[in-house]
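Subgroup meeting minutes
Present: P.N., E.W., G.H.
Scribe: E.W.

1. P.N. recapped why we're keeping a running log of single-chain structure predictions: easier to compare across weeks, and new members can see raw inputs and outputs side by side.
2. G.H. added today's entry (65 aa).
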Amino acid sequence: MPKIKTKRGAAKRFKKTATGKMLHFPSGKSHLLTNKNRKRKRRLRKPEIASDAMTPTLKRMMPYL
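Output recorded in log:
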């Protein structure tokens, strides 16, 4: 059996925590920022934990991380 390759796009966007959960930065912070209020932009700075439904898919994409 060949080795399983890591999906490089997923590896750049997601990070695994010590407990095995997947972190990602939310979308919406790259452009059109003038009409978003300050509180919303501040909340977008912090990473979010991926949903429980998405976590098994992400772990299959990144078997070695």
